[in-house]
Amino acid sequence: MASEKSSSAITVPAQQAAPPTAKEPKRKRGIARVAKLLDAGASVFAEQGYKAATMTEIAARAGAPIGSLYQFFPNKDVLADALVARYAEHVEAALDRIRAQVSDLDGIQLADRLLDVLVAHAAERSLALSLLDARWEQPGVRPGVLRESLRRRVADILMLWRPGLVEEQAQVMSVVLFQAMKSLVQLHEEKRYPGKAEAIAHWRGWVQRYLTEI
Amino acid sequence: MASEKSSSAITVPAQQAAPPTAKEPKRKRGIARVAKLLDAGASVFAEQGYKAATMTEIAARAGAPIGSLYQFFPNKDVLADALVARYAEHVEAALDRIRAQVSDLDGIQLADRLLDVLVAHAAERSLALSLLDARWEQPGVRPGVLRESLRRRVADILMLWRPGLVEEQAQVMSVVLFQAMKSLVQLHEEKRYPGKAEAIAHWRGWVQRYLTEI
Amino acid sequence: MASEKSSSAITVPAQQAAPPTAKEPKRKRGIARVAKLLDAGASVFAEQGYKAATMTEIAARAGAPIGSLYQFFPNKDVLADALVARYAEHVEAALDRIRAQVSDLDGIQLADRLLDVLVAHAAERSLALSLLDARWEQPGVRPGVLRESLRRRVADILMLWRPGLVEEQAQVMSVVLFQAMKSLVQLHEEKRYPGKAEAIAHWRGWVQRYLTEI
Amino acid sequence: MASEKSSSAITVPAQQAAPPTAKEPKRKRGIARVAKLLDAGASVFAEQGYKAATMTEIAARAGAPIGSLYQFFPNKDVLADALVARYAEHVEAALDRIRAQVSDLDGIQLADRLLDVLVAHAAERSLALSLLDARWEQPGVRPGVLRESLRRRVADILMLWRPGLVEEQAQVMSVVLFQAMKSLVQLHEEKRYPGKAEAIAHWRGWVQRYLTEI
DNA sequence: AATGAATGAGCATTCATTCAT
DNA sequence: TATGAATGAATGCTCATTCAT
């Protein structure tokens, strides 16, 4: 994996072996297959975590041969990256939709819309935690980038929503809001526990007040 | 591998192969070693998660041979359980200390005390996330039990603090508060990011208001 | 470790993790390799017994990497089972051949034919003892089943040979004969010792008389 | 185990590190303890076979600390040797008793007495198979020596019993008889199977006839 | 190009044996 | 001397990745 065998003294100088990346599928068949592979990857990663998920199971769950999985995602890391990217796209699109309508929203509505972004897709909810917090091979790297980008967008929304907000203020609030969004996912994801529904309601109310009281 | 040594007919019937448990060290040397092993285990689990953590690295980080690790913790699960137990003890003790003084505290103070419980020990902060949320072999089992017990204590504190509170109300609030406590750890744990200090302050203020406005 | 992946509520209920079985090789290369692995397994088990035999040595002796061995035989038990099955096939076929000709045989001939069944394949002779008597993980289970099935066939042959024989008589005789067959293998297998050839002749004569005197 | 680390170039020349042997217990306490250890060893070896038997379990079953076991038997092999020796003593003594009375016995009686030698002690019966046939680390060595010595004694008995017998004849017969003795143990040891009692009776009758018809 | 068998480094765990106490 | 904790080589097995077909 990350085992970097130091090269012999004779090594060719630069060459810099380009980091492997996901291959774009060309034909229709390939596109469908990649989608299935990503879905399978998402569910296995969500259920078992990065390390415990096996490439073999992911391929099997997608009904694809293992060789095919490696055709598109040359290693486990690339697949994980692709998953992060796909998830990021969904979430960013959702945030962008909010931004487009931000002037029509009051605090309560904005809070609800933001909270729904991460909570919405039950299927991705569990992956979200894995993607946003889990300890990857190089801890924090991948999740960190994603978090950064999403917070940025939340901050933008806030500044559009309350034009008076200073950049710094918006940034701080975006950190708080984004954490509140993730926390709500956690409240949702945990299996049945007493007071679950009410606690979620409390949490939403809490965030609404945060935005209302600005 | 569920090694079932079928016993001859003469053997004692159900013998039930007692589930393996951590062995208490007897001598001084052993006590120190177990402490080191637990610390090593805590840091490796915290960094890599349950599955990715290797017993070999844990032993190495404790400066102990692998056999020693297994002397005290007959398998990976038992070590994880011991870690949960040790962490639980610390946190429960901290919560009990709060309960003992609960009548002297106003909302702001109570909020601060509760939030500090999980945030306090920098060393354990990172483990906390692993212990309270991570995907274990049997996902949710171990963390679930711990969460349940800690929420129970928070609920007790609330009922002592505001004798008027109904059990159900306290329960819901304990869920919210406990989630807020975990979230603050996450805010702390994430490496350097813009607005970190202020966001943490916001979060604290938020929780203080939650308790003040009851 | 009886790794129980607890499934979410949505999963197919009883899934019963099918007990691992030997995988049939598909390609020509695989067929040859499996044959080599079985041979290697046979010789190592024969020489060292079940517990002392190591998968590593078996793979090495077959000139195969350890992963290949596990490709076809997902664990040591399955390999042992496959060996038992292969041996059983050979022996059962030999017994069936005798049964087909039983009406043409006198007592002496029948005795010789039966005795040859286990003694015949020098290569498998040694494995026979391991398979028929050795102490396996679950002592007696596997060998027991094999013994039972072989005795059954011997009893059938006897009843076909002497139609007057009562079932019970045939059963008892089959036990005796089968033991005599195994014993002759032992006499053969033991390395050079004084009187070996003559002792084997005695033993054969003894069995011949047992069948002649009915 | 058999791993012989070649000595460094500076090695002291001869020194020949005497092979480890069982230590004779001096005091009464030690004698009792050694007996217990041997009994425990016998039962564990009999149940699990040489390789699967663990020194720890043997010590535990004897109620002795592991260090104590190693005090008397410096390694597993030595313990096994001691067991063989103890078993040999018993059996040799029994054979010697037969020899002392051989002139009073007819063929039937002699057959029964010989057969009883190995079958007699239920406790040791199972160990007998392990000791007389099992595949040890160095296959055949230990059991081979024991077999040889016991056959010798059987041959002696035969020559005393029928003074006319030529040495070679007696030798061959002793091989056959000894195999018959072992086989009867096998017939006894196998758990319940149909026709067990009758088969054992047959076998005895068979051996009786062998001796009667000389 | 598509497939899945083949590979082997790496992991959890065991146990004979030693040696500090 | 007696004890049992400590040690680490060896074992069964997994799984990301490659490559022959």
Short description:
Four copies of one chain form a homotetramer. With 214 residues, the first copy, chain A, is mainly alpha-helical.
Notes on the structure:
Four copies of one chain form a homotetramer. With 214 residues, chain A is mostly helical. The first copy, chain A, has two domains: 23-74, Arc Repressor Mutant, subunit A (Orthogonal Bundle); 76-212, Orthogonal Bundle (Tetracycline Repressor, domain 2). The first copy, chain A, has nine helices and no strands. The radius of gyration of chain A is 20 Å and the shape is globular. Chain A starts with 27 loop residues before the first helix and ends with a helix. Residues 1-14 of chain A have low confidence and may be disordered. The A-B interface holds A 47-52, 129-130, 133-135, 137, 139-140, 144, 147-148, 168, 171-176, 179-180, 182-183, 186-187, 190-191, 193-196, 198-199, 202-203, 206, 210 and B 47-49, 51-52, 129-130, 133-135, 137, 139-140, 144, 147-148, 168, 171-176, 179-180, 182-183, 186-187, 190-191, 193-196, 198-199, 202-203, 206, 210. Chain B binds a DNA duplex (21 and 21 nucleotides) through residues 1, 25-27, 29-30, 33, 54-56, 64-68, 70-71, 74-76.
For the record, the CATH class of the largest domain in chain A is Mainly Alpha
Q: Categorize the overall geometry of chain A.
A: globular
Looking at the structure, the CATH topology of the largest domain in chain A is Tetracycline Repressor, domain 2
The greatest interface between two protein chains, and residues involved on each side, is: A-B, 42 and 41 residues
CATH architecture descriptor text of the largest domain in chain A: Orthogonal Bundle
Flag low-confidence runs of chain A. Answer: 1-14
